[in-house]
Design goal:
Helices cover 43% and strands 9% of the residues. The strands form four sheets. It has a three-stranded antiparallel beta sheet, covered by helices on one side. The protein has a three-stranded antiparallel beta sheet with strand order 4-5-6, with no helix packed on it. A hairpin with a 2-residue loop joins strand 7 (248-249) and strand 8. Helix 2 (61-71) packs antiparallel against helix 3 (78-92). It has helices spanning 33-52, 61-71, 78-92, 102-113, 119-138, 164-173, 176-188, 192-196, 229-238, 260-269, 278-289, 294-301, 321-324; strands at 3-5, 12-16, 24-27, 203-204, 209-212, 223-226, 248-249, 252-253, 332-333, 336-337. It is mainly alpha-helical.
């Protein structure tokens, strides 16, 4: 019998062989025997067409997922991708890649919306599908073309950042090991994991420089980090605490910065709705408010595109000041414009 059950799986499995080819064994992705039989029939027909008619092999969603997971196991999104794949398996498990069309993708999007999650969560889930389909089409040549995945609108979130006064209050309430990390974060804009995983081998105090390795960076590219005098001062205060890691607590590397001490310090400082990652927003906001051009901020923060930095643009209007002055000759008195004195200044 070609359909069978395995002890380690609730799904039906299939074993088929066509025209003396090597037998293929794989999960049907379903516990329903009728659906498993339909999957078996499609698989046999596909194998027969490949062998006798020379048609191009058709690949399943499961085959694509397995290959994708193997090729992207190094990425920081690996665990969340697997979480999405588990949810998606209910709707894509028995599908060939060329059966995944726009209509099916839209229906899955609608189903995900009905589970009560945000549009952003739905988009993250469907973007995983899009990445698999694009790779199948462009890299593996398993698919003639990848169906486009539509994204749902996402609300623009407010950027949460601290004023200098708020930051000072927070620093005064933190225990020494967290204070040092927060000071360093505000001086460099590094992400949380890059700070508590920072090692002395990544620091050059003489050249005032640090670097984040490619496998530690969110974008997968190494980042050079110029160190300000404030950052250098923090690092010198951590010398000799531990041989490998820069930031430690009682001689051990720090693995959690968002515990009770962090939360209580926020309460004592009177700071609401603030996450550790908002330290990076604060660093970027301070830069823009003090005149750092966005393209320079992009390089300093290791963002891959200028669009990712545009959300801070509204915090500074200094670059617009010269253009405002071009119409500074306009006189308005009691709602009446003196045309004779109105002159456009050429700049």
């Amino acid at each position: 019998m070609s359909l069978y059950k395995r002890k380690d799986s609730a799904n039906w499995w299939v074993k088929v062989s066509v025209l003396g080819c090597k037998p293929i064994q794989q999960s049907t992705g379903t516990t329903d025997k009728q659906k498993a039989s339909e999957y078996e029939a499609k698989l046999k027909n596909n194998l027969w067409e490949q062998k006798r008619l020379g048609t191009k092999p058709r690949y399943t969603w499961e085959e694509a997922v397995v290959r994708y997971i193997e090729e992207t196991s190094h990425k920081s999104s690996h665990s969340s991708d697997i979480h999405h794949f588990r949810w998606l398996s209910t709707y894509l498990a028995n599908k060939y890649l060329d059966e995944i069309d726009r209509s099916l993708l839209d229906s899955i999007t609608a189903i995900r919306q009905k589970t009560g999650v945000t549009n952003a969560t739905v988009n993250r889930c469907m973007q995983v599908v899009s990445r698999v389909l694009r790779r199948a089409a462009l890299d593996w040549e398993w698919l003639a073309r990848a169906s486009k995945v539509r994204s749902l609108p996402e609300p623009q979130k407010r950027i949460r950042w601290l004023t200098v006064d708020e930051a000072t209050k927070l620093l005064n309430e933190l225990p020494p090991h967290l204070e040092a990390m927060v000071r360093f974060s505000l001086a460099t804009g590094l992400r949380q994991s890059n700070v508590y995983n920072l090692q002395w081998s990544q620091i050059d105090l003489a050249r005032h420089q640090a670097w984040i390795y490619a496998d530690q960076a969110k974008g997968g590219k190494a980042i050079a980090v110029p160190l300000s005098s404030e950052a250098i001062q923090v690092l010198r205060g951590q010398l000799f605490n531990q041989k490998s890691h820069v930031f430690t607590y009682r001689g051990q590397p720090i693995t959690n910065v968002k515990g009770r001490a962090w939360r209580k310090a926020l309460v004592r400082a009177g700071i609401d709705n603030f996450r550790w990652h908002d330290l990076r927003h604060t660093w970027a906001s301070w830069h823009v408010q003090n005149g750092t051009p966005l393209h320079v901020l992009q390089q300093l923060g290791g963002w891959q595109s200028l669009e990712m930095v545009q959300k801070y643009a509204h915090l500074s209007s200094e670059h617009l000041a010269p253009y405002v002055e071009r119409v500074s000759g306009l006189n308005v008195n009691d709602g009446v414009t003196d045309v004779a004195t109105f002159q456009l200044r050429k700049g």
